[in-house]
Amino acid sequence: MLSALTKSSALRPRGLATLAGHSKVWRVYLSGEIHSSWREDVAAGIRDAGLSEQVLLCGPNPSHEDSDDCAAIILGMEEKRPNWDRIGASMNAIRTRTLIDEADVVVVRLGEKYRQWNAAFDAGYASAKGKPIITLHPPSLGHPMKEVNAAAAAVCEEVPQAAASPMALQARAESSLIPRG
Questions:
Q1: 3-class SS at 121?
Q2: Are 136 and 163 in contact, with CB atoms under 8 Å apart?
Q3: In angstroms, rounded to a whole number, what is the distance separating the alpha carbons of residues 150 and 65?
Q4: Is the distance from CB of 109 to CB of 133 less than 8 angstroms?
Q5: Residue 24 vs residues 18, 52, 106, 172: alpha-carbon distances, Å
Q6: How many separate helices (H) and strands (E) can be counted in the chain?
């Protein structure tokens, strides 16, 4: 989808114009499933659109085991698993909240195989912070995601590269509004 958008000469990557010598760098938080390559697909879509220098991607720890065990490793092992999960979630929340607070856009991916309650929570947190949200999920999750989709600035289904499209269009729109020197 992104490649189709960039075939038009009006949408072909030109780079961002600068204002006082600085280009806008979009900070994009990628929330959601960690069991597929969707983050790499979004990064490839951004790279293929020529926006690698204008978009900085970040997200949660992509290692499920490391994410679950981070606090127990840092703070010491806990005997009770519920406490282990609680302190791990608390440690992860420091990273998640900081990166969402710093983000310009939050992309929330939910897949069919796992229930990603954390991604739904991230969407709610981002919405409460006034962050634009792009949801990314298969068509079969349209109904379960209806509330999250209602808060989203864009809804993408099936093709992870599509999540880069609204960012690409916004970056190009901004570059056309800034006077070139």
A1: helix
A2: yes
A3: 32
A4: no
A5: 8, 12, 16, 11
A6: 7, 5
CB atoms within 10 A of CB 141: 17
The CATH architecture annotation of domain 2-6+23-33+40-171 reads 3-Layer(aba) Sandwich (3.40)
Domain extent listing, the chain: 2-6+23-33+40-171
Q: Which letter does DSSP use for residue 116 in this model?
A: -
Neighbouring CB atoms inside 10 A of 119's CB total 27
Residues 6+ apart with CB under 8 A from 131: 100, 103, 104, 105, 106
**Which structure tokens are listed for 98?**
């900081």
Predicted TM-score (pTM) of the model is 0.76
Tens of pLDDT along the chain (181 residues) come to: 333 333 333 333 334 333 344 578 899 999 998 888 888 888 888 888 888 888 899 998 877 777 777 777 777 776 666 677 778 888 888 999 999 999 999 999 988 777 778 899 999 999 999 999 998 888 888 888 898 899 998 888 765 555 566 665 565 555 444 443 4
Contact 1, 99 (CB under 8 A): no
Alpha-carbon gap, residue 141 to 112, rounded angstroms: 7
